[in-house]
Specification:
- There is one protein chain.
- This protein is mainly beta and about 160 residues long.
- The protein has one domain (about 1-155).
- It contains one helix and twelve strands.
Length: about 160
């Protein structure tokens, strides 16, 4: 699992791990969603987070390689933590998309810790966006520092 973040790094925790005691809202997704029609829920290959103080923004990668290492599949980063209603992820498209306004500050999370992405993990970031949509000069991914979140919780 790889997550992308903008913000300052501090040097506490385990070696190579930073701590970011912060409250964030999940406010959008990567434009593609997998909908469970029976349950009325959806999940995405990536999510947009905004800090409670509106100073930090995150892009979360929720994709991983399948067991053969050949194809991207949806990960389980927020499974069991948040059930996104399907209607929050309808109308996606090219690139990252904000949830409809009524959902923007509904999904509150606490990010307890993260670490910087490795160079290999950073190379996968452009793959989060459909190749037909990706423009390296204008794309949102370029505006974020890349980190992997190691501890995240839902706030009631």
């Amino acid at each position: 699992m790889a997550l992308i973040s903008i913000g300052s790094f501090t040097s506490c925790g385990k070696k190579g791990e930073s701590s970011s005691q912060g409250i964030y809202y999940v406010v959008g997704y990567d434009g593609a969603a997998k909908v469970d029609i029976q349950n009325g829920t959806a999940k995405s290959g990536g999510y947009l987070f905004i800090s409670e103080n509106l100073k930090d923004s995150l892009i979360v990668n929720n994709r991983k390689w399948d067991e053969n290492g050949r194809f991207w599949v949806y990960g389980n980063l927020l499974d069991g933590i948040i059930d996104f209603p399907a209607e929050a992820m309808l109308g996606g498209g090219c690139g990252f998309t904000f949830f409809p306004e009524e959902y923007r500050f509904t999904f509150k999370m606490q990010i307890n810790s993260y670490r910087p992405m490795t160079e290999e993990e950073k190379r996968d970031v452009p793959r989060l966006v459909n190749g037909m949509c990706y423009n390296p000069h204008r794309h949102i991914v370029q505006k974020f520092k890349l980190v992997v979140i190691t501890s995240i919780l839902k706030i009631q």
